[in-house]
Write a structure and sequence with these properties.
By secondary structure, the chain is of the alpha+beta class. It folds into three domains: about 110 residues, D-Maltodextrin-Binding Protein, domain 2; about 80 residues, Periplasmic binding protein-like II (D-Maltodextrin-Binding Protein, domain 2), CATH 3.40.190.10; about 80 residues, ACT domain (Alpha-Beta Plaits, 2-Layer Sandwich). The chain is about 25% helix and about 35% strand. Strands 2, 3, 4, 5, 6 and 12 form a six-stranded mixed beta sheet that branches. A five-stranded mixed beta sheet has the order 9-8-10-7-11. The termini are close together.
């Protein structure tokens, strides 16, 4: 459960209006007691996190993982660079993803370029290749809704991958529905804030760590979870961006940071890591 021990005056999300992130933001609003929270769309995850860092009463909703494409790299890279330990993950939610091909054009025949968020483009690669071939130009944008918004200023040869609501907002035609290659497509979003959380009966803790440059170092870390019978929910890695071949590992495990088993596992992990960061403890969706 979230403790609103910090007044939240601003709630940021990856916009513009109509994004999947806005849908997640609307769910998180129900957790906040204040009814006059200012809701602000931002164009990039980096700008969102920087704003939260500089504004004590701001919280943010950002994507962290997709069921098809995995980790959202921009989110995790920027969270690693966040040096304020009071800003952590306070909650999570999962939003179904149903992509559409939208455009000012009335049919797909004249489409020459497709714009969208890089994950959306990747999630629809089979549809794109089937209908447009492998050589059609694909242009990456900060979000699916930003891509749809930009269509209003482009000619009819452009299309975007976005959701149906975004097409309605920007008065675009839906040329094809449910075009994602995997139909059970979901994205996990997190609430980033300075609010603390209290343990419940269904929590998870997210951490990031870098192992020592020793043989079997990662295995030793993972064996700690096994020895304490703590269930691992997720593991992924990103390059450390310091030295070639060095990686930072992201792990979600069952339990709350305030629980004794979680404290013990973190103490033991530190023996085989050069770096460890607590990203947050929060109730599982």
């Amino acid at each position: 459960m979230i403790e609103i021990n910090k007044e939240i005056k601003e709630l940021l999300f990856l916009g513009p209006q109509g994004s999947y992130c806005e849908t997640a933001k609307n769910q998180f609003l129900s957790l906040l007691p204040a009814k006059d929270v200012e809701q602000k769309p931002f164009s990039t995850v980096k700008s969102i996190i920087e704003y939260v860092k500089d504004n004590e009463y701001a919280a943010a909703v950002i994507p962290v993982e997709n069921s098809i494409e995995g980790i959202v790299r921009e989110t995790m890279d920027n969270m690693l660079n966040l040096n304020d330990p009071s800003i952590q993950i306070s909650a999570e939610t999962v939003i179904p993803v149903n992509h559409c091909l939208v455009s000012k054009a009335g049919s797909i025949r004249g489409i020459k370029k497709i714009i969208s968020h890089p994950q959306a483009l990747a999630q629809c690669r089979n549809f794109i290749e089937k209908h447009f071939g492998s050589n059609i130009e694909q242009i990456e944008k900060a979000s699916t809704s930003k891509a749809a918004q930009e269509l209003t200023e482009l000619d009819d040869s452009y299309a975007a991958i976005a959701n149906k609501r975004t097409a309605e907002i920007f008065k675009l035609n839906v040329l094809a529905k449910n075009i994602n290659d995997e139909k059970d497509n979901k994205t996990r979003f997190i609430l980033l804030s300075r609010c603390t959380t209290t343990p419940t009966d269904s929590d998870k803790t997210s951490i990031a760590f870098a192992t020592k440059n020793q043989s079997g170092a990662l295995v030793k870390v993972l064996n700690v979870f096994d020895s304490l019978n703590i269930n691992l929910l997720y593991i992924d890695s990103r390059p450390s961006k310091k030295n070639l071949g060095e990686y930072v590992f992201f792990v979600d495990f069952e339990g709350h940071i305030k629980d004794e088993p979680s404290q013990k596992v973190l103490d033991l992990i530190k023996l085989n890591t050069n770096y460890i960061k607590i990203l947050g403890s929060y109730r599982k969706f």
